[in-house]
Amino acid sequence: MENKRELFQSMVKRFGLLNKNCCTVDNVEISLVQSHILYEIDRREWPSMQQVADALATDLSTFSRQVQSLMKIGLVTKVPSSADKRISVLGLTEEGKKVALAIQKDMEAHLEEIFSHMTEFERDMVLQSIKLLNEAMAKSSVCCKPMY
Amino acid sequence: MENKRELFQSMVKRFGLLNKNCCTVDNVEISLVQSHILYEIDRREWPSMQQVADALATDLSTFSRQVQSLMKIGLVTKVPSSADKRISVLGLTEEGKKVALAIQKDMEAHLEEIFSHMTEFERDMVLQSIKLLNEAMAKSSVCCKPMY
DNA sequence: AATAAATACTTGCAATTTGCAAGTTAATTT
DNA sequence: AAATTAACTTGCAAATTGCAAGTATTTATT
After folding, report:
1. Rounded to an integer, what distance in angstroms lies between the CA atom of residue B103 and that of residue B107?
2. Which residues of chain B have pLDDT under 50?
3. How far apart are CA A16 and CA A13, in angstroms?
4. Which of A2, A104, A134 sits opposite B5 (nearest CB)?
5. Which is nearest to B109 in space by CA: A143, A33, A36, A134?
6. Are B110 and B21 in contact (CB under 8 A)?
7. Which of A68, A102, A109, B92 is the most buried (most CB within 10 A)?
8. What are phi and psi of B65, to 5 degrees?
9. Where are the beta strands (DSSP E) in B13-109?
10. Contacts within 8 Å (CB) and 24+ apart, A131-135
């Protein structure tokens, strides 16, 4: 009953390690944080800096610099919004999309491999559980309020 | 079927935020990494530097310095092993144990709160699922081999 | 028994990453 | 029109990282 933390800690750490496997695609090497940024830009429709920085729970100044480096290696675009010129709209370049997709495929494959060690029934249960967990965390007062 | 990554990413990020809530106890303020070190030392029986560094997937040199700072604030002890003088055996001071316990309680409370948004049935299912997931990840070739 | 090799760390870098504070420019209030 | 707020950017300075090169101790080799 009271080994919850251990279970979670262990799972999260493992997933973190898995996550670290990412990030060299097409002769481009990117960091874990950078891959998260690509991921977040990819799944949104032309988000602003604020939006993504919030999603990643990063300081805007830190984020600003990270975006600069991603622009430098040609994965991300940043255009001032025509509606509000204070806002910069983020997007992925073709290469950025390619990299994001490659990482996505890689992660999917890893997850598939992990799920292959389960029965069909277990797979369904686990996925169902993670959904539940996410909903519960979203409802929770102690965590993750500003989340998608 | 292919939203696995999203589910995982979301869950892990949320848990990460929750985790960040840790770390100010008894006028002692510690970092997330430091809390993980306390946690790992606590759950092992007099581990060596290597063992904990491996568990945290940190470079030994980085870890060495982190231990130094934890010793400086009086949370961790480091004694050369009598059996093998190359090895340093790590432990928690009384204060270290207190801090570790406080964090533990805090995390448990957070998790309880999260689980309170579920039915009894769902709770059981989710815990069961996380166990399954951990086992599957342990079996996996792509992740987390050197893990407890 | 002496030398070589491996192990467990520590220290010296140098690079990266971080957040805060203080800016700039643009939009919104009053 | 002036003041406030919002969306960023830049200048620090501190913290964190890993690699390479060290030391000390133990194990293996000859």
Report:
1. 6
2. 1, 146-148
3. 5
4. A104
5. A143
6. yes
7. B92
8. -70, -35
9. 24-25, 28-29, 76-80, 88-92
10. A131/B7, A132/B118, A132/B122, A132/B125, A132/B126, A133/B11, A133/B114, A133/B126, A134/B7, A134/B10, A134/B11, A134/B14, A135/B117
A18 and B137 in contact by Cβ < 8 A?
A: yes
pLDDT for the residue numbered A148: 41
Low-confidence ranges of chain A (pLDDT < 70): 1-2, 143-148
DSSP SS3 for A57: coil
Q: Name the packing angle between helices B32-43 and B60-72 (round to 10°).
A: 90
Supply B69's token pair.
């700072």
**Pick from B47, B142, B91, B148: nearest CA to A3:** B148
Residue pair A18/A110 in contact by the 8 Å Cβ criterion: yes
Q: How far is the CA of A87 from the C1' of C26 (A)?
A: 9
Give the nucleotide at minimum CA-to-C1' distance from B47.
C8
CA separation (Å) from B8 to A19, A131, A134? 10, 9, 9
pLDDT of the residue at B146: 46
CA distance A42 to A97: 7
Tokens representing residue B130 in the block: 């996380």
Distance, angstroms, CA B120 to C1' D30? 68
pLDDT recorded at residue A143: 65
CA–CA separation, B43 vs B103, rounded Å?
13
pLDDT of residue B144: 54
Amino acid letter, residue A140:
S
**Cβ-Cβ contacts under 8 Å, A118 against chain B:** 132, 136
What rounded mean pLDDT belongs to chain B?
Answer: 88
Measured distance CA(A78)–CA(A47) in Å, rounded: 10
